[in-house]
Structure formats: C-alpha cells, structure tokens
Give the backbone structure.
Amino acid sequence: MARPAGGTRSALLDAALDAFAAKGFAGASIREITRAVGVRESAFYAHFSSKRAAYDELFAEAGPPVAARALDTLSSEVAPQEFLSRFAVIVIDAWSTPRARKFAAMLMRDVFDARAQGWRAIRTAISGVIELLVKRFALWQRAGSVRSDVAAETLAFEFITPIAMARFIYFNIAAGKAEAARGRQLIKEHAAAFVTMTVCRPAGKDRP
C-alpha cells in the first residue's frame, strides 16, 4: 500500500526514534531503521544526509528548541502575565505528542553518553532559550512591567527550570495520562505563581 505524501520521511523518523531510544544514538544503525520501515537504505539518504541529521531533526521537533519556537510565536507586545501563561501552554502541547514523549526517554538515555554529545546539545539549546527569555525579561523590566530588583538572568532561569524538569518527569513515554495531566497542571500553576511573584501591578490595583 502506497504511503501518503511525506509518509516515508515521518516513518523513518519514528523508526529512528525507536532505535535511538532502545540503543542510544551510537548503537542504532541506519540499516535497522530502514528495515523497520521496509525500505532500502537509499530511501533513508533520500531524506536525510546522515543518522545525525535524523537525530537533529527529532531534537529540533521535540527537544528544547520547542521552547525557543514558542518564544518566537509570542509578540513582545504581549503583556508578561499573558506571555508567560501562553508560553507554558504552547510548550506543554508540543511536549504532549507521542513522538515528543518518546523523545524525552531518548534524551534521558543519551544525555550523558560517552562523548557527552547529548549533554552538550541540551546545554546549548537550553542556554539559547534562557538567552531569549533574558531579553524579554529585560524588556519588561525597562517598561516597569516586571520587578527589577532581581536580575533578568535569574528571572529567566527561575521561570524555565521547573518547566524543563517537568518535561522529563511527566512527559515521557513511561508516564501515563494521569502523570501527564499532573504535569500540565503543575506547569500552569508554576506560570501563575511566577506571574504573581514577579509581574508589577499598576499603582492603585489590588491583587485579586
């Protein structure tokens, strides 16, 4: 039966993810990936230049870059309380997909591989997200929207760290629906509490 347009590429990514999760990046082979899909190795190279290219695409789709894309989708004109809450929901939705949950398991396996490549990739990606958040917090501080007695770098780190931690605890292939629901609730509560503690309210406005 013919696959739909784009079906082979997606199937290869799913098979690659299964192989990476089971054996790690180094242990997985292109041969077993293509066998799982039922295509020749040449079909793999028609879509990806290398095994690393397939890994990088999965990393971009379900790894920390998800948070960077969420930041890009939200205008800097959005008020911080709305921005932070919406950011949390966008990230949760992206991490809730089956492929993203399976990818979390792969990351936990490979984050400290022999060459520490997984750790370096995660560190670089998360550092990039924090840098983007620092710029937003600094902008809000200059506008008087967010407390300025705490460094923007600290605010960015404190906001993103619990979200990143919840990603591995509650949004992985081993976690069930109840765990995912719990993680979603915790992240939303974290964003709400963070807003309460950091966003400045206009003069004369009482807290709700």
